[in-house]
Every structure is written in C-alpha cells, then in structure tokens.
Amino acid sequence: MYSLVIAEAAMELVPRILGNHPSVRNHCKRTGRSINEIFLDVSYHHKAMVEKNIDQWWKRGRPDIVHFDLVEALSTPLFKQKKLQVYVSTFDNNLVTISQDLRIPKNYSRFEGLMIGIFNKQKSKNSPNLIEFQENVSFNDLMEKIVKPDLVIGFSVEGTRSKISDILRNNVTDTAKHYCFVVGGFQRGHFSDTVTAACDTIYSISPFSLESHVVISRILYESENYIQ
Amino acid sequence: MYSLVIAEAAMELVPRILGNHPSVRNHCKRTGRSINEIFLDVSYHHKAMVEKNIDQWWKRGRPDIVHFDLVEALSTPLFKQKKLQVYVSTFDNNLVTISQDLRIPKNYSRFEGLMIGIFNKQKSKNSPNLIEFQENVSFNDLMEKIVKPDLVIGFSVEGTRSKISDILRNNVTDTAKHYCFVVGGFQRGHFSDTVTAACDTIYSISPFSLESHVVISRILYESENYIQ
Fold first, then answer.
1. At what angle do helices A63-74 and A108-119 cross, to 10 degrees?
2. Are B21 and B96 in a shared domain?
3. Which residue of B has its CA nearest to A68?
4. In this complex, do A107 and B221 lie within 8 Å of one another by their Cβ atoms?
5. Count of domains observed in chain A
6. Does A228 touch chain B (CB under 8 A)?
7. Domain check: are A92 and A29 in the same one?
8. What pLDDT does A126 receive?
9. Which domain holds residue A172?
10. What pLDDT does residue B207 have?
11. Contacts of A110 in chain B (CB under 8 A)
C-alpha cells in the first residue's frame, strides 16, 4: 500500500496579522469575500507577507501548488484504483485527509471554494465526508498516529540522487507493507528539521529542481509500473 | 528533437451566439469583464452551451485543461533544456506557439489574463513575444507548414495499446529526426478525423482513460529517460 503526504503545504487562511494590510483589504473588496474566505496567496499578498515579515514567507501562500499536487495525484490510475491514500499536511499543522472517492475540482476557483469551506469547518454539500479537516496535527503525529507506514521515503533536491525505479527496487521490497512518500507542497526552501527527521530516507530524483507536481507524477507513474 | 501539440484544445473566447445567455451575462457582470475578456468555460456556461446546442459542446470550454497541460509540459526538464517545442491548436483552429523561454503562470487567474490578452491580440507587457497567436491555422497546416515533423505520434484511448518505453523504442529511432507528440486538449470525445488522419500512428498508453496532463507528464518523462 502507498500513501502520499504533501508536507508543509503552502495552504492557509490569511493570518490575522495581515488582515489590515492594503493588499489583503483590496483583495477582499475585489472578490467580495471576508478575510476568512480567502487563502493566503503570494500572487496577491506578496507585499503584505514581506512587509509584515511573516515567518518563512517564501514557503507560504501557494494554494495553487496544493491544487496542482492534488490534481496530479488524484488523476493517476494508482489513486483511482484505491491503492493510494493522500494527505495534505500544511505549514501550520492542519491536516487534510482526502477520501479515495474524491473527485477534485479541476477549476481552481471551485477548488478554492471547496477548501475554504473545509478550512472553515463547513460540511460541503458536494463532497460530504470526502475531505476531512483536523487542526493541530504535527507531522510526527500524522506519521505515528494516522498514516503509520512501515517506511517513509522523502523527496527533496537535497536528498541522495537516484533513479525512481532504483529507489522503488531498493526500498519497496514487500508489497504487504505500507510505504509513505513525502513531497514538499511549497515553492522554495527545503523540508523542516521535523519532516527531515521523520523520513527514513530522502532522495533526489533529478539533477534539476523539480516542482512538486512533477515529482508526484513521476513517483506515482513509476510505482504503477513497479507493482504491475 | 521533440514537439508537443495540444490538439483541439478547449480554449476559445465565448462565442457571440452565447453572448445574451443569462449564464454568460451573469458571469460577465460578476467578474466585471466584457464578453471578449472571458474564455468559454463549461464550469460557468454549461447551461448556455447546452441550451444553444453549440457544435460538440462536450469537447469545448475547458481552458483549465489547457492550463494544466501547459504547466505540466513547461515544468519538465525536457522543456527547460529547450529540447521541446510546445503548440496549442484550438478547437476552432487558433494556434498558440509557446516560446521555449516562457514561464507559465501557475495561478489560473494570471494564466487566463495572459491568454485573454493574447487572444485579443494585445502584446503582453510581461511576456513580449513569448507567446505567438495566429488565427485560422488548420491542424494540417500546422503540421505541414509550421511543425514539419518527421513522425507524428498521437495519443488516444482509441489507439494501439502499448507501453511508452516501447513506443519510443519502436518509433524514435533517429535522434536527428523531429518527433511530434499529439495529445487532445479536451475533456471528452476523441480526435477529429482531421487530427486522426494527420497522425502517422496513434497509441493508447493505459487501460484507463487518462486525462491529457497525465499523458503529457508520462510521455515527456519517458522521453527524458529515453534520450539520456
């Protein structure tokens, strides 16, 4: 069995401290939404994030990355055959658990609307119980109490360079076991010390710095080939 | 050398005939944009498309698919190493030629804004000459006068079932030659007779009906492996 965790995912509601910044106020006004109804998004709130100097701002405010990552993972035959469990663990320790029956909206606005509701703990009419939201779940708690994998394989440009087929051959040695892939759901920077420590092994699959959705598509495709 | 053509791509400005439909008028009003400034989008204009019974409506109005396809292709090392030329050939015979230096907006709204400008023949301030737009370029003209490949390999669920690595081994036999991959940029249905006839060979790479961005990620990844 396989799990995929999108770790330190750059998806969060706008932090209160930015609520009065003009770039946030203008975005709320333009979209007719309150501050609870928009995700922090560097595409609109860059100035607020930098001027207020929020912690590690360069790893935050990219809900579009999480959207791409989820569409990528949920479009694979591996997921559609219910051989993959997907989790989003956010920068600020919220956990989104994706049901194996979820059909993710491809349209970004619809995805954002769905997720905003989830983050505000509203039950979705369209997807009841297909997405679960939990607050204050640390990465360690996620691994030890929820995913409970036999092996945690992280992917990062700082990992050991290896071909995916070799990574699978060397690590996925018992199909009865549970293997968890961890990919960072952010634009820049590396895994935190916590995530790094929780991985049994970390690999780099390319001499290039790949975007997370590319890493996800490649490891899931090779996993499909490997288990066939 | 490789080219990728996203064929019969479901990206077009709202057809005039739908301009007075309430679902289109409401969308214009809500977004504060004129009918020339929004793409046909089944997510918003489904009712108009069905009620006005526009030709093959089920293959149209999915600019988000084109966005995913482009992000997928342009995020690959193959593209970044300038070994891949990318074209979008739309349902209604518009041609979008992507420069090998383009950095595509990941944020859908920014992508839409960029493309809307291109479709209205405005020069983009951010991406001068990085996207070229031409009207009335048929798929045959694109192949014969612009791409001019040595071999055209189409991918469709109706093609001959084969593994991608085998497809490459059996077809990509001379690295000095120019190979063109064709993937449909629409949600449902199959290649038109024109596109089918223009392909030298058509393959299916999975027993499942894969979304076009999944097909693109897989063939480009295997092509990278193949030419290494």
1. 100
2. no
3. B68
4. no
5. 2
6. no
7. no
8. 59
9. 2-10+62-227
10. 93
11. 43
Q: Write out residues in chain B with pLDDT < 50, as ranges.
A: none
Q: Is B157 on the interface with A (CB under 8 A)?
A: no
Same domain for B156 and B125, yes or no, is: yes
Q: Does B33 touch chain A (CB under 8 A)?
A: no
Going A197 to A203 to A207 to A208, the CA torsion angle's sign is: negative
The confidence score (pLDDT) of residue B94 equals 97
Q: What phi and psi values does residue A79 have, to the nearest 5 degrees?
A: -70, -45
Structure-token pair, residue B17: 């005939």
| Confidence at residue A121, expressed as pLDDT on a 0 to 100 scale | 82
| Substitution target from A74, A106, A165 for chain B, most B beta carbons within 10 A | A106
Q: What is residue A148's three-state secondary structure? A: coil
Q: How far apart are CA B104 and CA B212, in angstroms?
A: 18
pLDDT in the model for residue B25 = 93
A162 and A219 share one domain: yes
Q: Do A75 and B109 touch (CB under 8 A)?
A: no
Q: Are residues B22 and B99 in the same domain?
A: no
List of chain A residues with pLDDT < 50: none
Q: Between the CA of residue A132 and those of A87, A94, A98, A127, what are the distances in Å?
A: 10, 11, 7, 10
What is the pLDDT, as a whole number, of residue B160? 97
The pLDDT value recorded for residue B123 is: 63
- Which residues, including other chains, have CB under 8 Å from residue B103's CB and lie 6 or more apart? B74
Q: Does residue A123 share a domain with residue A32?
A: no
pTM for this model (two decimals): 0.95
| Interface contact B72, partner A, CB < 8 A | yes
Indicate yes or no: CB of B75 within 8 angstroms of CB of A110: no
CA–CA min distance A105, chain B (Å): 10
Contacts of A210 in chain B (CB under 8 A): 75, 77
Contact of B185 with B213, CB cutoff 8 Å = no
CATH number of the domain enclosing A198: 3.40.1280.10
Return the pLDDT at A119.
Answer: 93
Please check whether residues B72 and B49 belong to one and the same domain: no
A162: contact with B, CB 8 A cutoff: no
Interface of A with B in 43-62 (CB under 8 A): 43, 62
Same domain, B104 and B25: no
Nearest-Cα residue of chain B relative to residue A71: B68
CA distance B91 to chain A (A): 20
Of the candidates B64, B65, B107, the beta carbon closest to that of A43 is on: B107
Q: In the sheet that B201-204 helps form, which strands lie side by side, from edge to edge?
A: B131-134, B95-98, B84-90, B2-9, B179-184, B151-161, B201-204
Query: How high is the pLDDT of residue A108?
Result: 92
